[in-house]
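Notes taken during the Thursday session

The instructor put the following on the board and asked us to keep it in front of us for the whole hour. The protein is Mycofactocin-coupled SDR family oxidoreductase. We were told not to look anything up and to reason only from what is written here. First, the residues (286 in total):
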Amino acid sequence: MGRVEGKVAFITGAARGQGRSHAIRLAEEGADIIAVDICADIDTVGYPLARPEDLEETAQYVEKAGRKAIIAQADVRDAAALKAALDNGVAELGHLDIVVAQAGIAAMKGAPAMQAWTDGINTNFVGTINAIQVALPHLKEGASIIATASAAALMDASKKDRPGADPGGMGYMTSKRLISQYVHDLATELAVRSIRANVIHPTNCNTDMLQSEPMYRSFRPDLEKPTRADAELAFGVQQAMPVPYIEPEDITNAVLWLASDESRFVTGMQLRVDAGGYLKWYDYHV
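Then, after some discussion, the predicted structure tokens were revealed:
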């Protein structure tokens, strides 16, 4: 028996990267998958987003693992579209046990600047709310909600040397902090119903978001056209352990644990998978 045998998981941002990794591993451990992704670019995001064929490929991996995959192209900013995709999947698969609100962007292209802020907040924070709240009517005792925030949510951003210089970048940090607070409060309300809700905070993760020109420029502002090799020299500043980034599978391991009954009494947690990044920012406290 797999660790999530017979369960159904709803995953946003499932076409590639962390979302695809989660879908494949949960399927390998016995879950059927409802997978959604926007499968289109957003103007303020300076790297290509997933394509329809990426989402189809995720489904093929799930089916290769012997599980069912229901896929839909849906923008997490559109609650109605997300609800329709999820309701269709639940009608097909019969129930819903796991929610992985994974979809997220780094809107760092910079022009128009405040649209980057808006797109980041609406995708990362409002999109997480939408994914969770369209799922709530389907969830019963024993269900698990997992939201992806970021180690960026835990960093001290009180010193703003250049206010207004990067609204998209600040919007990313803000959206991830808001996810943390939202899920904390939601977990409190759901605990009496024996439904769990937790947040995972990844550090730099080896996905298309990190391996992109805007992110290279963010880490190496001293260079006009930094390469991946240039940026990787600076990626390590985020972590206490001597690594430039972690892999999607490292996050998936945490997702699987939180989705499984192994963590049946774990709720309201802010789980850092950050290679010690938090240790560089904060002193010990309970």
